[in-house]
Amino acid sequence: ETGVTQTPRHLVMGMTNKKSLKCEQHLGHNAMYWYKQSAKKPLELMFVYSLEERVENNSVPSRFSPECPNSSHLFLHLHTLQPEDSALYLCASSLKARDGTGELFFGEGSRLTVL
Amino acid sequence: GNSVTQMEGPVTLSEEAFLTINCTYTATGYPSLFWYVQYPGEGLQLLLKATKADDKGSNKGFEATYRKETTSFHLEKGSVQVSDSAVYFCALRTNTGNQFYFGTGTSLTVIP
């Protein structure tokens, strides 16, 4: 139990579906992240939210839409995905400390399969 | 720029063998360094960390020393077990922001 909870753990969707991934952290952190982990590829940072500021990887397609309503919750809205979007999506959180020493805490991931 | 380079896998060792996984980094400023471990079907878990030069992080028999002169943070364990089979990621965090940089991961399999 890392204090970061992701739901659902597994999701299968068609290319025309709309679904959302949810992440919740109970650690009092003030930054939350979405990462994509594909087989045989490096971990890819998709989005970062911290103190109501958003940073995004410009290579992430617009069919992925993040939402961060407060410092404890993070969503990833999925719309008209492609089969190559099938991957493990990892949520993480950290504390934005002044000295930058805090680590990332990861959830267990949401395994997405796009048919 | 900031980046992490770790040795390619996969690595296969016999139980009780000595493990080294190399990690070198490029960073501006004074980063914090981390090793994460990912067991099958799970997310990444922090294994150990070091926040300044010459610090040694240790946990579960694993160790890594922050070497600023060689910009390295190699992971070592004196005697691996089958339960250590996992993927290991080296990472850094710059001291100026929320960005983390990960290596590509090294898969370790320990055979009885």
Give the overall form of chain A.
globular
Strand content of chain B: over 45%
Q: Helical stretch count of chain A?
A: 0
Low-confidence region ranges of chain A:
none
Overall shape of chain B: globular
Query: What pair of chains forms the biggest interface?
Result: A-B, 26 and 25 residues
- Assembly classification: heterodimer
Please trace the helix and strand order of chain B, writing H or E for each element: EEEEEEEEEEEE
- Compute the number of strand runs of chain A: 11
Biggest beta sheet summary of chain B:
6 strands, mixed
What is the rounded Rg of chain B? Answer: 13 Å
Q: How would you summarize what this structure contains?
A:
Chain A has strands spanning 4-7, 10-13, 18-25, 31-37, 44-50, 53-56, 64-70, 73-79, 87-94, 105-106, 110-114. Chain A is an all-beta fold and 115 residues long. Chain B has 112 residues and is mostly beta strands.
Q: What report would you give on this structure?
A:
The complex is a heterodimer of chains A (115) and B (112). Chain A starts with a strand and ends with a strand. In chain A, the strands form 2 sheets. In chain A, strands 2, 4, 5, 6, 9, 10 and 11 form a 7-stranded mixed sheet that branches. In chain A, strands 1-3-8-7 form a 4-stranded antiparallel sheet, with no helix packed on it. By secondary structure, chain A is mainly beta. Chain B is mostly beta strands. Helix content of chain B is 0%, strand content 51%. Chain B contains no helices and 12 strands. The mean pLDDT of chain B is 94. The interface between A and B is medium-sized, with 26 and 25 residues.
